[in-house]
Amino acid sequence: xxxxxxxxxxxxxxxxxxxxxxxxxxxxxxxxxxxxxxxxxxxxxxxxxxxxxxxxxxxxxxxxxxxxxxxxxxxxxxxxxxxxxxxxxxxxxxxxxxxxxxxxxxxxxxxxxxxxxxxxxxxxxxxxxxxxxxxxxxxxxxxxxxxxxxxxxxxxxxxxxxxxxxxxxxxxxxxxxxxxxxxxxxxxxxxxxxxxxxxxxxxxxxxxxxxxxxxxxxxxxxxxxxxxxxxxxxxxxxxxxxxxxxxxxxxxxxxxxxxxxxxxxxxxxxxxxxxxxxxxxxxxxxxxxxxxxxxxxxxxxxxxxxxxxxxxxxxxxxxxxxxxxxxxxxxxxxxxxxxxxxxxxxxxxxxxxxxxxxxxx
Length: 361
Fold this sequence. Notes:
- By secondary structure, the protein is α/β, with parallel strands linked by helices.
- The chain has 2 domains: 2-148 and 331-358, Alpha-Beta Complex (Quinone Oxidoreductase, Chain A, domain 1), CATH 3.90.180.10; 167-303, NAD(P)-binding Rossmann-like Domain (Rossmann fold).
- 27% of the residues lie in helices and 25% in strands.
- Strands 4, 6, 7, 10, 11, 18 and 19 form a 7-stranded mixed β-sheet that branches. A 6-stranded parallel β-sheet has the order 14-13-12-15-16-17, sandwiched between helices.
């Protein structure tokens, strides 16, 4: 199969022929229909987060099941599925207490003595975040995908696999936004727009979108933002404080920078919660003033929207089909696998919400 391979940090991905294995007992072989190009992939390309190389990148995808292993019961050949990087075992402490996105059990991967799922000469190819979806096929654990209704367009369904689940989930699961509460979202890329959309679905009374690009702020209004703040016009914390007369109940940082993480905490009202969704580079520390905690302000992380994806993703599909979840507006362009490096260049420039790789059926 053809796949986009990262062999060296900082270098463009190469389109190569990569060998893919057959499904083991609990594995599923999927024909990839579409894969979103996410800023998280770019972090690994640039080396902000280390990963064993070479690897086939990509982690936001949807496709059609081709083969299943002997013990698979959740999907069958012909099913349409969305994938999720937070594969879960189903019986560890995290899974059994309802925190499936935290599962790190090695059971969802192949063991060191097993033949790898991906390979190429010379040597094995590393699978990326349980998925490797910048490829014509994916071989994954059955608990890394979920069946969805077949009338859902797969190029749009792919977005639910990461950005939508991460953003909407952070709102409804991690921070538990209640109707009427105020929300600020820093960064209006794919995840930030999903946060805004999720806050609107949750019934937030005021949703403030913050970015430095006017085009993204205009897009944020389509996703449900009631107010927009251009950080180029002055201190965004002061602008939010002026708009809200004292700060917001919930803030969501969707960029992954020290400065914006600190701003997300500073713009809280007393009792507010800051949620860090963006991937702050390894080794970077953030600084907070201790006195701020006397106002019962909180700061917390969110991994993949604290999801229960086998339940959440089919519901998100229904939200889209009902007109509540905005996905068409999130896709800036549809591209071929060979254009993946162009999509990364556009991400670096901050020009687009989402490019989606569409594979020929």
